[in-house]
Amino acid sequence: MNEPWYPARAVVDLDAVRGNVRVLRDAAPGAAVMAVVKADAYGHGLLPVARAALAAGATWLGVAQPAEALALRAAGITARTFTWLYAPGAPLAELVSADVDVSVHAPWGVEEVAAAARAAGRPARVHLKVDTGLGRSGVMPDQLPEVVARLVALQGDGLLELVGVWSHLAFADEPDHPTVRGQADVFDRAVEVAERAGAHLEVRHLANSAATLTTQHVHHELVRPGLAVYGLSPVPQLGGPDAFGLRPAMTLEARLATVKAVPAGQGVSYGHAFRTPRDTVLGDVPLGYGDGIPRHASGSQDVPGAPILVGNGPSARMLHVTGRVCMDQFMVDLGPDATERAGDTVVLFGDGATGAPTAQDWADACGTISYEITTRLGARVPRVHLHAEENPA
Ligand SMILES: *Cc1c(COP(=O)(O)O)cnc(C)c1O
């Protein structure tokens, strides 16, 4: 499948991505789906995932940064693409020329987008970001009338089209949280302000993965799921991926680089945070924080580290990171009767169906969210994409 000598790799099943996008389309039947592929598709590989999402019926792609949108265009992807996070001086003219939809999230952005449209010689398609309560980026409601008036005036000059109003939820992962309704109300009033000023909006969008799967009243014309595209549950306290028909796309695996017997009392890895209580066999897994493995996955004498599935086939065993995670590797206590050999497979996380731990298990072990587990995976880990041939070129 890949070089036989790989020390580690992330296998990404694009069939799972396509299936997950279909689940999201079914969850929001009245809305178009924007597959959020920022941060290298949450670590899964920007271009193959973007193509798979489009093949399964997503009609928009969403990325945080302008460079990510331009990377999609450079690869020949022409689907409707939206980008939303930039500071003054961003290459907005390049985005407008490349037919990328852009967000305006602050008053200064209005003039920069207008200047970009002049430079590009064509109107910019603009989505106005409203801070409905997340307290992150976006125009505050009290500034809206002024910003909207300016956008509508520039639209009259032919410099832009105000095609969308959008926002983002603070508690989408707690669907019953009162702020969800509260933000939706602020959002609806912002839309009214835009429409009363003369905007003809094509899309209103507010829903990430969690809201797409749980909160129909915020779907509007467009939903923006990211995490669920990759088959991970955005609401783990309500159910895992299978509760929603999702399948995790990424399997992170490595091959044991060393297997060796050590005596009782052997300190293991930096700081000897673990000391072998008996004669045992240690395995060396060639993945570390230089590859994005959280150092918080480390084990100690009292607390086992993150779970891993060691060995091939039916004899595979669930074990744990032993001692501290290093930059390039971590150790596992295989026990005195280990039969594993160097070269055997270790699965850190996968889709769960094979008995391997999941990215959610790793998130729980490391005190974080599954988003961070896949997204932080480093460039040194090759991504191997399965079933790419079913994507259109
Ligand atoms: C990342 C992001 C999304 C996708 O969120 P998920 O929780 O991964 O579905 C949607 N919208 C914005 C603005 C984002 O930053």
UniProtKB/TrEMBL annotation:
Entry's EC annotation: 5.1.1.1
Top EC class, one word: isomerase
Annotated Alanine racemase C-terminal domain residues: 249-386
Lineage top rank: taxon: Bacteria
Active site: K38, Y270
Pathway the protein contributes to: Amino-acid biosynthesis; D-alanine biosynthesis; D-alanine from L-alanine: step 1/1
Residue numbers of N6-(pyridoxal phosphate)lysine PTMs: K38
Cofactors demanded by this protein: pyridoxal 5'-phosphate
Matching SUPFAM superfamilies: Alanine racemase C-terminal domain-like, PLP-binding barrel
Keywords: Isomerase, Pyridoxal phosphate
Binding site for substrate: R136, M327
GO molecular function, one term: alanine racemase activity
Database matches in Pfam families: Ala_racemase_C, Ala_racemase_N
Family recorded in the similarity comment: Belongs to the alanine racemase family.
Role description: Catalyzes the interconversion of L-alanine and D-alanine. May also act on other amino acids.
Entry-linked PANTHER family: ALANINE RACEMASE, ALANINE RACEMASE, CATABOLIC-RELATED
Protein name according to UniProt: Alanine racemase
Organism, as annotated: Flavimobilis rhizosphaerae
Gene that this polypeptide is encoded by: alr
